[in-house]
Amino acid sequence: MHDEMLDPQLKEQLHNIKGDEKALEECFYKNLEFGTDGMRGEIGPGTNRMNVYMVRKASEGLARYVLSTNETDKKSIVISYDSRHMSPEFALEVAKTVGKYGIKSYLFSELRPTPELSFAVRYLSADAGVMITASHNPPEYNGYKVYGNDGGQLPPKQADALTNFVNSVEDELSIPVVDKEDLLSQDLLQYIGEEIDQVYLENVLNIRLNKEIIEKVKSDLKIVFTPLHGTSNKLVQEGLRLCFLAI
Fold first, then answer.
1. Active-site positions?
2. I need a surface site. Which of 79, 88, 222, 240 has the fewest CB within 10 A?
């Protein structure tokens, strides 16, 4: 808590629970586990919480994994995130961590759904994808999921290798990162969005079934849609609009 380099927000949170031994133990009694499905946990200070330092630890392991699987000079990942608290901040920390290894990050400028991330990994020929999300967990949670160069979840062997790299990172507080402006000037950070949306939706529309039925009923068909505070809001509405369906 006396570390001058400690994130101010986390330092304040630690100060607020300074005398609460149970709360402190819950935050620090173990490391947040990173497994086949990535990692997730409550947002807050400590090694058993989702925060910038645990995101850096996972990203440091991911960078080492990418370096072990790609010996070329061209290495990249795609990063997306959902609408949860701290998701944009965590997403940027991923780019700031892997950038020091010369790994370029394609970072969505706004929240995007996981399927589009998977598509973007393949479309951009990236080495991996990172989705900052905690799926169905309560709102106080966030998480970190990694996808392979095919856009899918990592097979067991590759997932184990990644997990070993993450677990080999011993001090998450001392992981160096690169400033956002430096990443941009070195072309190690590129924001993406509408171009990927357009290509993604074109590919989705190309695999529609029974197009002739849609043409027959579209004038009478009305759809009620709620994203439930999720990332699908814009994309689903645009997809339905391209199908000439009323929403």
1. 135
2. 222
